[in-house]
Amino acid sequence: MALPKNLQDQLRLPVIAAPMFLVSGPNLVTAACRAGIVGAFPTLNARTLDVLDDWLSEITTTLEDLKRSGANQIIAPYAANLIVHKTNARAADDLALVEKYKAPLVITSVGHPGDTAERIHAYGGIIFHDVINLHHAKKAAEAGVDGLILVCAGAGGHAGLMNPLTFVAQIREFFDGIVIVAGAISNGQAVRAVEVMGADLAYLGTRFIACKESMADEDYSGMLVEAESKDIVYTDKVSGIHGNFIRQSLEQAGLVDGAVLNDDEFAHVDEKKKAWKQIWSAGQGVGEIQSVESVETLVSELESEYKEAKAMH
Ligand SMILES: Cc1cc2nc3c(=O)[nH]c(=O)nc-3n(C[C@H](O)[C@H](O)[C@H](O)COP(=O)(O)O)c2cc1C
User: What CATH number corresponds to the domain at position 77?
Assistant: First the structure.
């Protein structure tokens, strides 16, 4: 299906800067929205509920001011990402704050959306749910979400193993809502390819980690510039769920060779302390990151590549 008109009109490019733990905060979100793409952040990046309240207020005010000033052509809406897994003790309180600020878009991940869709729809919001397989996609569709985010092979974070070409086709057999594709999308041609495949939006995480406005530190950004696709290791030994991590950061944490970890090596990981903070995640698109750029520069690059590809296909 085509994107709802109100969403389409608010986007310069069919792109979401995906939410990333310890990476996306208000600066990245507002820079993305200002550049005309959806900016998203995991609510858990705000360490307390008071901080989350401040972040949501800051993002809302900044975007309203930008729209009012008329200085920029398109100001995209933002998305709040809720981890709906039962181990997330903050899920209910974070959802209440998202409702308070009427976040225009909500992305639920790591679990079942439950009654979240109803609650988001009640204030007029749009909800997308993150999935890695057809089984979970069907359950989320039944729960009434507006869009499905297909997290495919090679994605940063907790990636799946599905190939996007067939994943999109099989989702389209039962779902006519918004389809969003994630996984190693790092250039404007790939953004266009997502539309050609029959999906609506591209979801880019890794490409935004090394942006100036992200919360990633210099060492992490430097490693992203250096790392190549072959350095990405798919393992469940870091966080308990399969995900993609950078070999060099596994080595820095004392995991020899960074090859696929075995249980003995896992015993060396102080799980809570090191996962995400010191063992850094990235998708296979890391091989396309050559420098640290501002969000606006990156989005302008994506836009010219996208337009060129669209003129041809
Ligand atoms: C460092 C990092 C942290 C992430 N944290 C989250 C998260 O907190 N919530 C979530 O839904 N997805 C998270 N993701 C997944 C992204 O939202 C997105 O699905 C993924 O980055 C897309 O693939 P790409 O990195 O190849 O572009 C994370 C990804 C990375 C690289």
Answer: 3.20.20.70
